[in-house]
Specification:
about 400 residues; mainly alpha; 18 helices; globular
């Protein structure tokens, strides 16, 4: 048997077993052992009318800008100014057509992120053993369905950014355009600048300067409005909830719960724990970046890519868990680069379980406190597992030094 095939076959079985346990733990068990021991009618998504509520509101932002009027929620428009021009054509067609186009592009983006990107990055044909089950699973579970139901375009932004990363050695100019365009859709892909600029500080200046100038594409007034909206969002608690994966939201919610419980001891140490969470996140990023600059390899690239992807979920103050749908591509690429050994088998199972646990939110279906329904701890576990190939680099470097 081909050893590579054996590795992917075993990894696929491990991931399926982790998914099964997560399914039983977060879907079946709560339904049967809580609330009178009966299977409840589960609400998969928090449906709103009209469908694609986020897209509907955003297109209203653009219509009010086009007509020179003031929309009710204009002060909450935190999207980059150029995004207004990108989505302007959608205001010229019916809303249902706009929603249909965004849904179709989201579906294509999921295909690229799950099926195409890991294969192109790894060059391993057997990675489809992992990616096909993951794709079917992604189609049927909460993050992707919630992304589509809200009319969001996180998947589209990340697919464009990942396309740029994939093509960076073949067509640099096009890859830079992909990166710049993705940032104008959503700000968080900016962290992937390391894959485009590498060690060349001039590229950081060019890409950073261009991105900054594009913020003035609709004039200074629109730029100032954009900054004001971000500032107001940072002070608001409206998005602090269990569906927000950010570190900021996690600790604000923890503080709220600890106050309700009257746990003064926990409240006293909470700022220290929050600081340690940020230190841990940026520490993993720094170590990953150091090795990324030192050694180009599939293992290091995949680990650092997954680190950056997780940070897009942890760092922004508002980071709803429908964004988890784009995490699966980098996870598959990362798993595919791991060597077939016992420690890595455990790591693959943990990554699979943590990721699968985030697919069964079903809103109030995860029983217990709000804290136990949040996905932030699972993201941190995956983040630290990313250190495995990076620590292997230091281990091999130390062994070479002893010879």
């Amino acid at each position: 048997m081909d050893l590579n095939y054996k590795k992917y076959y075993q990894f696929t079985l491990i991931l399926l077993s982790s998914f099964l346990l997560a399914f039983l733990s977060f879907y079946i068990a709560p339904a049967l052992f809580h609330g009178g021991q009966q299977m409840k009618q589960l609400q998969l998504l928090p449906f709103l009318d009209p469908v694609g509520a986020d897209l509907d509101i955003y297109l209203r932002f653009i219509e009010s800008w086009r007509e020179g009027t003031e929309f009710q929620w204009s002060d909450s428009n935190i999207y980059p100014p150029l995004n207004t021009l990108i989505f302007l054509p959608f205001t010229w067609i019916s809303y249902l057509w706009s929603f249909g186009i965004i849904t179709f592009l989201s579906f294509l983006s999921l295909i690229f992120i799950v099926l195409v990107f890991p294969y192109k990055m790894s060059g391993e044909k057997y990675i489809f053993l992992l990616s096909f089950p993951a794709f079917i699973l992604s189609l049927m579970t909460y993050p992707f369905l919630f992304e589509v139901e809200r009319g969001q375009f996180n998947l589209i932004a990340m697919a464009i950014c990942f396309l740029g990363i994939q093509l960076r050695s073949k067509n640099k100019m096009f890859s830079y355009l992909c990166f710049l365009f993705s940032i104008q859709l959503k700000l968080f892909p900016a962290i992937f600048v390391f894959f485009f600029a590498g060690k060349d500080w001039k590229k950081y200046l060019i890409l950073g300067g261009t991105s900054f100038l594009l913020l003035f594409s609709l004039g200074y007034k629109k730029f100032a409005h954009f900054l004001f909206a971000i500032k107001e969002r940072s002070k608001s608690d409206i998005y602090v909830s269990e569906v927000n994966t950010s570190i900021d939201s996690f600790f604000r919610l923890t503080e709220k719960v600890m106050n309700e419980w009257g746990n003064s001891a926990a409240l006293n140490v909470l700022p220290t724990v929050e600081a340690l969470a940020y230190i841990g996140m940026f520490g993993v990023l720094a170590v990953g970046l150091y090795v990324f600059f030192k050694k180009e390899s599939h293992g290091v690239n995949a680990a650092f890519l997954l680190i950056c992807t997780i940070i897009t979920l942890l760092l922004p103050q508002t980071s709803h868990d429908y964004k988890i749908s784009y995490l699966v591509g980098p996870i598959l690429y990362f798993i595919g680069t791991l060597d077939f050994k016992k420690t890595n088998l455990v790591a693959v199972w943990l990554v699979g379980f943590c990721y699968s646990s985030m697919l069964w939110h079903f809103w109030e279906h995860k029983q217990g406190s709000q804290l136990f329904r949040m996905n932030t701890p699972a993201l941190f576990i995956i983040l630290f597992i990313c250190l495995i190939p990076i620590l292997d680099y230091f281990k091999k470097k130390n062994e070479v030094g002893k010879i």
